[in-house]
Amino acid sequence: MEDFSGYPIHETHFPNSLSSLSVDTENLQKQIDELSSFSDSPAPSVTRILYSEKDVSARRYIKNLMAVAGLSVREDAVGNIFGRWSGYEPELPPVSTGSHTDAIPYSGKYDGVVGVLGAIEAIGVLKRSGFKPKRSLEVIMFTSEEPTRFGISCLGSRLMAGSKGLAEQLKKTVDSENVSFFDAARSAGYANVEELSTVSLEKGSYSAFVELHIEQGPILEEAATHIGIVTAIAAPASIKVDFEGNGGHAGAVLMPQRNDAGLAAAELALAVEKHVLASGSIDTVGTVGILELHPGAINSIPSRSHLEIDTRDIDEKRRNTVIEKIHQSALSIASGRKVKLSEFRIVNQDPPAISDELIIKAAESASEVLKLSYKKMISRAYHDSLFMARVSPMGMIFIPCYKGYSHKPEEFASMDNIANGVKVLALTLAKLSLV
């Protein structure tokens, strides 16, 4: 038997050899392809929106795969799906893994999906090897990691982590067609959706959580590195800003007399870039992802403008300093251009998450045993892991993706890289289950 350093290994519980760790790549690719067919946009793109008909079909597909894999399946009030393989000491807090399967419009078929289907396959790898877990292993498919329908990212994992205020917010949340969150959930079969308190988990409900994910960036591919081991997840915050001016005819109102809300928005967008760059850290980023002008006519001076700004950093204090500088710029711009800053609202301001050292070491050891190169790195995208860190020790495993593409149809991860990630996940779960 090859030693798996630092943890007790018993012949009756651990894989007999690394050669027994076989990933069924053909079946896994088939599952990825089949799941991508549950889409509201044509291939190769994938669109799968929370509680839509395609989302419900995908959920049914995942539950069936879990059952076929021999997992006991349950769902909570908002549709987080759990598949458990009971360990020989089932009273201990389980080790969990998983990700999401919802997809933003016209995206790809690997984001999140690799972490759900790959987790189910990792359980299969361990079962076929003869491994017997001490702690139970649980696969989670989280509800609505993407904010597409209701503007709330990581909705399921936020609720699981006991996010304050979210349950109240959901009571008045509607989508772009004025369908309430509760009505949408009930239409998808979640009759008890209003029982949100039952979704929340106590801290320590799991002994560890590990998420397998495509990198969504080019670092691993460019470095020809097999595995990324995440040490921290950047702290996201989002801001909504509205300016109000006077508008008027584009030809008749002379430049000195204008109160142009559009130019105020443009100036603030440039200020965001300035403040982010002034932080002095490559880990500080800011994006003006939405900029809307009213009335939106070429021959009309904008009377209103709306911006939505995304800021992220692994240093919460540094990110919050950038937010405050953006606020001060918005006030100054409004004054200078004689427009009204009618809204400056921080929608969410989540803290960063640090990966647990034990999970990092387990993933490092698994990579070394499998003779796979690895790199420690931060995640600048955020994931359900960010909120699971509030419930249990957390870690993430990245695999390379083609040119770092994600959230578009060209998103791709090779089956060799997926298989490597599944094996590292399997061994990491095995180690953590024996602690």
Number of strands: 17
Helicity level: 25-40%
Class based on secondary structure composition and strand pairing: alpha+beta
- The fraction of residues in strands falls at 15-25%
Write the layout of secondary structure elements.
Elements: H1 25-36, E1 46-48, H2 53-68, E2 72-75, E3 81-85, E4 95-100, E5 103-107, H3 113-129, E6 137-142, H4 155-160, H5 166-170, H6 181-187, E7 208-214, H7 219-222, E8 227-233, E9 235-244, E10 248-249, H8 261-278, E11 285-294, E12 300-301, E13 304-313, H9 316-336, E14 340-349, E15 353-354, H10 357-369, E16 374-379, H11 385-388, E17 394-399, H12 415-433
Parallel strand pairs: 4-6, 4-7, 7-17, 8-16
Antiparallel strand pairs: 1-5, 2-3, 3-6, 8-15, 8-17, 9-13, 9-14, 10-12, 11-13
Structure summary:
This protein is an alpha+beta fold and 435 residues long. It has twelve helices and 17 strands.
